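Quick one: structure for this chain?
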Amino acid sequence: MYEISFIFRPGEYDDDFHRLDAEIDEIARATPGYIGSRTWQSPDGSVLNAVYSWEHLDHLKEFSRSAAHMQAKSEYQRWYAGYEVVVSEVISRYGDGRL
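Got it. Here's what it folds into:
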């Protein structure tokens, strides 16, 4: 399994952001190999982390090449005050099953 963490400082969101955000979420969910996502934020809310999970790296790459994702990447400075992306291979994941 692979996870991509999109860590960012929110900026100002507009109608274009909300449209692209919804479209990108729909594309992610429709891409083969998509497992799910979750979002975390720092205690003060100034930094967020959106984590997406995929069965295989090729699935993640397929998603990343979508037109909406490419547009959002090219215009990120309109909506974010900074970002970092971390792509990780998950070798183990466990818990009590209640999250």
